[in-house]
Amino acid sequence: MVNINLLPKEILEKQKVQQMLKLSITAVVGIIFITAIIFLVKASVLPGYSAKLSSLEKELKQVQPIVDEVNKLKGIKSTLESRKQLVEQLLNSGLIYPKFMTSLMETLPEGIWFTNINTVSNRGPDKNIISIKVNANCNSYDKIVIADFISNLENNPTLFKEVKLGPINIIPEGSYEKHTFNIMFDYIVPQ
């Protein structure tokens, strides 16, 4: 079948323009309608969000003192931990000198007494004492007791090393001879 159009060209063009105009108006109205729906949805949700925000702010104000107290407690905890470390370090190194004196007294034979003891502690990389350098001035009324003392120190190499005896001076005291001497050694701290 053949389609014959009897309308003039101007009318056909006018109809095409009217159709384009209708299509454009429909598109604009659709866009406005969709935008209005989106706006209304957001506007209806916004009060819910603001109410939620205000309730969260209220809850934060209620919890803030607890958070401040927790932060304060964390500060106290770190202070206590540093004090605990100090006490542990003091316990580890503080008991070394009493142990040293006990070990020294166990090796000291009867008849020798100290007139002066100087010590210098040597610390390791962890700041703990690993050895004590000892320089002692002693007196005795018997040379054999001095030899026993040196022997006792040398026979305990796990605790005493580098034992060195200085000169022995003899000073007459009535019917006795007092022997003064200097002794140096290293006390090794047991691990």
Order of helices and strands: HHEEHEE
The largest sheet, given as strand count, sense and whether it forms a barrel, is: 4 strands, antiparallel
The CATH architecture classification of the domain at 95-188 is 2-Layer Sandwich
What is the CATH homologous superfamily assignment of the domain at 95-188? Ribosomal protein S6/Translation elongation factor EF1B
- What's the end-to-end separation, in Å? 115 Å
Note the beta-strand portion: 25-35%
Cα-based radius of gyration, to the nearest Å: 50 Å
**Strand neighbour order, sheet with most strands:** 1-2-4-3
Number of helices: 3
Provide the CATH topology of the domain at 95-188.
Answer: Alpha-Beta Plaits
Any idea what the shape is? rod-shaped
Please report the total strand number as a whole number. Answer: 4
CATH class of the domain at 95-188: Alpha Beta
Helix content: 55-70%
Describe what is shown at a glance:
This protein is of the alpha+beta class.
How would you describe this protein?
With 191 residues, this protein is an alpha+beta fold. It has a domain of 94 residues: Ribosomal protein S6/Translation elongation factor EF1B (Alpha-Beta Plaits, 2-Layer Sandwich). Helix content is 58%, strand content 27%. It is built from 3 helices and 4 strands; from the N terminus they run ααββαββ. A 4-stranded antiparallel sheet has the order 1-2-4-3, with helices on one face. β3 and β4 form a beta hairpin. The longest helix is centred in the first third of the chain and has 86 residues.
